[in-house]
Design brief:
- The protein is of the alpha+beta class and 160 residues long.
- It is built from 3 helices and 8 strands.
- Strands 1, 2, 3, 4, 5, 6, 7 and 8 form an 8-stranded antiparallel beta sheet that branches.
- A hairpin with a 4-residue loop joins strand 4 and strand 5.
- The chain is globular, with a radius of gyration of 15 Å.
- It starts with a strand and ends in an 8-residue tail after the last strand.
């Protein structure tokens, strides 16, 4: 089945569009898929408009509609996001695949450098991936305000 919903989350909104308490109105199987250990991809846009696709680890907080990627401030993906002139942040997508199941989160990204925000993102990464990355003074967070969620596969469906 396919989960395909587009929303504009309001900060602090307690309920999703279906009143489930799930900001994006996604089913439990979809959300569980985002808690499993899977490597993901992040797609940003290069200056020439072509896609830049790289492997990353992603965490997803459905209650706030926020996806996070920890990375090095000097990476191409960070440069691509910072270069964006789109109001609200650069348009990006993160995706994960496991055999016949897949899920994509699309949204607007911004770069966060605050120490507490980076520490929180590292903690979330460690929870999902079972390891804590070593110290890195150049670590930043790509914070994605999710606007659209898509997916397909066994057990991945939209909450009704």
């Amino acid at each position: 089945m396919r989960a395909d919903t587009e929303t504009t989350p309001a900060p602090g909104a307690p309920d999703g569009p279906d009143g489930s308490g799930d900001l994006l109105g996604l089913g439990p199987e979809y959300l569980a898929f985002w808690r499993e250990y899977h490597l993901c991809t992040l797609t940003t846009q290069r200056p020439d408009g072509s896609p830049h696709l790289v492997p990353v680890g992603v965490t997803f907080e459905p209650e706030t509609g926020t996806a996070r990627v920890i990375t090095n401030r000097n990476s191409r993906k960070v440069a691509n996001i910072l270069r964006s002139t789109d109001e609200g942040g650069a348009r990006v997508a993160v995706c994960q695949v496991d055999r016949g199941r897949w899920a994509t989160l699309e949204g607007r990204a911004r770069i966060r450098t605050e120490e507490a925000v980076v520490a929180d993102a590292v903690r979330r990464y460690a929870e999902r991936y079972g390891r804590t990355p070593g110290p890195n003074p150049d670590r930043v967070v790509i914070e994605i305000a999710v606007r659209r969620a898509l997916g397909r596969g066994a057990g991945i469906s939209r909450a009704s």
